[in-house]
Every structure is written in structure tokens, then in C-alpha cells.
Design goal:
This protein has 168 residues and is mainly α. It is 65% helix and 6% strand. The chain has 2 domains: 3-81, no CATH class; 96-161, Winged helix-like DNA-binding domain superfamily/Winged helix DNA-binding domain (Arc Repressor Mutant, subunit A), CATH 1.10.10. The protein has 7 helices and 2 strands; from the N terminus they run E-E-H-H-H-H-H-H-H. Helix 4 (102-110) crosses helix 7 (141-161).
């Protein structure tokens, strides 16, 4: 859905797809950086996107470009924080207490590399296609498919080793 915006420089209404770009980018940033930093990065990149909307609307892959901008901003945040914070939870996921693997799955996901966790969450939690994930993170669809497969193997192995929560 395009949202008409007043282009103050030209004095006319300009349709932009910035809200669509931000909506597609949100789950990727939260999956990679966790809810707190992910939302903060989304806010920063949203401001940038609105400022540069004319340039973005002309790009072939504006969501991928904004993802890379957010990664640059994330490095600045990590330098200040001096530590990398893994996501404490996967947003929009089902209640961990209601699922027999909930807590174990969360622990296993947190141990994946950030890119791999992002791929797994986007494909399995948000139903993104490989091509969409590839476009966002700047990898080929084949690389996304391979990394997803390897990550799922790691998750399955780890979940087989960890004790399950007893449900009675």
C-alpha cells in the first residue's frame, strides 16, 4: 500500500513505499538483534528512510539497502554497549509454556549465529520465502536455503541433547 506524502521540495504529492519497506524490515531486525535493539534500529532506519525516500523508491532493493544501513548503526550501538545481546525472546512466537520445546527452542535459537537465527526466524516464524530473505540480508537464495538447512540440523541436534520440560 503506497502512502501519498507531500514532497516539500517539489511542492507536490509523492507516493512512496517507505511503510512497506519498514514493515518487511521489522522482523529481520528483531530476529537478528532482539526486541529492544531491533526496535531502536528500526526507528533509526525509519527516520533515514523517510529522509531518503526518493532515492529509496528508485532502488532495485531498498529493503536490503536499509538492512545494511541498520547493520552499520548496530555496530555503533555495540561499540557503546561493549557487548552483544542475544534476543531474550522471539517476538510473535507462541507462548513457550504452551509448547513442549518452547524454552529449549529459544535457548537453541539464541546459540545460532545472528545471520542464521535471522534466516530461521524469517522463514519459519514469518513465512518469508528464500528469495525475500536473500534480498533483505544480501545473500543468494541458494545461500539462504543452505544456511537454513544447516541451522535446522544444528537446532535438531541441540534439541535432542537438551532435556525436555515435563508436561503432565
Amino acid at each position: 500500500m503506497n502512502e501519498p506524502q507531500l514532497d516539500e521540495d517539489a511542492g507536490c504529492v509523492h507516493e512512496t513505499r517507505v511503510p512497506e519497506y519498514i514493515a518487511r524490515l521489522r522482523p529481520a531486525l528483531i530476529a537478528r538483534h532482539g526486541p529492544q535493539l531491533g526496535i531502536e534500529l528500526l526507528s533509526e532506519v525509519s527516520e533515514y528512510a523517510w529522509t531518503e525516500r526518493n532515492k529509496l523508491d528508485e532502488m532495485a532493493n531498498p529493503v536490503g539497502y536499509l538492512y545494511r544501513v541498520s547493520q552499520s548503526n548496530a555496530r555503533r550501538h555495540r561499540r557503546w554497549a561493549r557487548e552483544v545481546e542475544l534476543p531474550p525472546e522471539i517476538p510473535d512466537s507462541h507462548d513457550a509454556d504452551d509448547h513442549p520445546l518452547g524454552a529449549d527452542l529459544h535457548t537453541a535459537l539464541a546459540q545460532l549465529r545472528a545471520d542464521d537465527r535471522t534466516i530461521v526466524v524469517l522463514v519459519h516464524s514469518y513465512s518469508y520465502r528464500y528469495e525475500e530473505v536473500a534480498e533483505i540480508i544480501g545473500k543468494s537464495p541458494a545461500a539462504v536455503r543452505n544456511r537454513l538447512h544447516r541451522s535446522m540440523v544444528r537446532l535438531r541436534r541441540q534439541l535432542e541433547q537438551e532435556p525436555r520440560h515435563a508436561h503432565r
